[in-house]
Amino acid sequence: MTERDLGRVLVIGAGIGGLTLAHTLVGAGIDVRVYEADDDTGDRPQGYRIGLAPAGMAGLRASLPRRLYELVEATSGSLTGPGLLFDEQLTLLHSDLEGPAADARAMDRQVLRRILLGGLGDRVAYRKRLTGLMERADGPVTAHFADGTEATGDVLVGADGGNSVVRRHVAPEVRLVPADLCGAMGRTPITERFLRLVPGRGTMVKGPGITLMLGRMQFGTEPSAAAAELAPGLDMPYRDSYVRWVLLVPPDHPAAADAGRGRWDAREVVLGLIDGWHPDLRELVRSADMSAIGRSRIYDRPMPPWPAGRVTLLGDAAHLTLASGGNGATTAIQDAVRLCARLDEVRRGERRPASALAVYQADLLERGNAAVEAGKEALKRFVPAGETADLPRAAHGAEG
After folding, report:
1. Per the database record, which ranges form the FAD-binding domain (predicted)?
2. Which of 19, 40, 104, 394 could cross-link with 302 by S-S, CB 3.0 to 4.6 Å?
3. Contact 13, 160 (CB under 8 A)
4. Is the whole-model pTM more than 0.85?
């Protein structure tokens, strides 16, 4: 086997999974280029706090240069302490709700993405929206972009999210369709008043027919200060710690029908739904500095196997998990680590590319479909019985 069996790897999408893969490939001595449709500001309106299970943190530790992993640890937040359940007047109902593993960590999505962009430099190209690709039998893959340019590599990885162009190439029978799940979420800067609402790993407030979920993102070290110390030169704006709140909007609410069209202020929607609730909860929502309303989308069936060639998928492009499971980012990071291991076997002459990607695909589909089912099961904690009955058995939902 020659070195030509694995030259350049093309990664479509600079999200958490795609960037983690880029770092793992660089560490393995494999040439990689990442193509991102968005601009180079480093921020995306894709949610706020996410949880990383121990497997996710271990994947980042194995993938990142030491200084960047130290920055991940420094800016992460605790997911320990009590998980509380209150009624809408903040009467304590339960003080030990099931939660994440003791060594799981909270991360701000935007902070993590900026860390992952660190050190990749010109390996990441922006404003490159994929329009199609050409896969030759046992030969290179060519990606075509909307600006008229193209790129050629020996393997192409679709890490381009739920609406993946690459997924439509390998599994065109799988469709992305709207779900009945609509969520309003917000980010409110932490004050002593609001921190008392979330003293531990999370708080759930059960009102008549609706649930408000609270999670704190309290940075171990403020991100811009941590970056200045641990990774000088990394672009990291100042970030306040905050409480993230989420409420599932009833499907018959007008905002649910118009989600994503910019017609609704999430704060006003939630305030209308929690009218009469405890003043601290209403003020938490009213004081948000960022909020949004979004409707989940789902794949209409489980992701099926596809003919193994030189094109594969990673993260949401293959397994769009419900945010209720809290496992989307961790699963994508695991995808990246395991895919790099298979590609390194190609680099070492131990496998052909198609064989390596077939082994990876089998693992990807098993873990990914399990993660989707876990997210669906977790959703039952937040939605009254019967409201998820119409979801496909292996439905995938988008995180807000």
Report:
1. 9-171, 288-373
2. 394
3. yes
4. yes
CA pair distance 44, 290, nearest whole angstrom = 13
Q: How many CB atoms lie within 10 A of CB 337?
A: 19
Stretch (H or E) spanning 24: helix 16-27
How far lies 285's CA from each of 108, 173, 393, in Å? 19, 41, 34
CB 144, CB 132: distance < 8 Å: yes
The single-letter DSSP state of residue 274 is T
**Beta strand ranges found along the chain (DSSP E):** 8-12, 31-35, 49-52, 77-78, 83-87, 92-94, 105-108, 124-125, 130-135, 141-145, 150-153, 155-158, 176-189, 202-207, 210-217, 242-249, 290-299, 311-313
What is the dotted CATH code of the domain comprising 3-379? Answer: 3.50.50.60
Contact 395, 287 (CB under 8 A): no
Question: What sign does the CA torsion over 66, 326, 255, 239 have?
Answer: negative
Number of Cβ within 10 Å of residue 153's Cβ equals 20
Q: Pick the closest to residue 296 from 246, 366, 242 (CA basis).
A: 246
Q: What are phi and psi of 163, to 5 degrees?
A: -95, 40
Q: Give residue-wise pLDDT tens across range 78-127.
A: 988 888 999 999 999 998 877 666 688 999 999 999 999 999 999 999 99
Q: How many CB atoms lie within 10 A of CB 16?
A: 27
Tokens coding 131: 């329009």
d(CA 117, CA 36): 12
Q: Which two tokens stand for residue 66?
A: 């030491």
295 has a pLDDT exceeding 90: no
Bridge partners of 214, per DSSP, are 203, 245
Query: How many helices, marked H, and strands, marked E, lie in the chain?
Result: 12, 18
Helix 328-347 and helix 54-63: axis angle, to 10°? 40
Q: How far apart are CA 255 and CA 90, in angstroms?
A: 26
Rg of the chain, C-alpha, whole Å = 21
CA–CA gap between residue 153 and residue 147 (Å, rounded)? 18
Tally Cβ neighbours within 10 Å of residue 333. Answer: 29
pLDDT tier for residue 374 given thresholds of 50, 70 and 90:
low
**DSSP code for 139:** S
Question: Pairing state of beta strands 105-108 and 77-78?
Answer: antiparallel
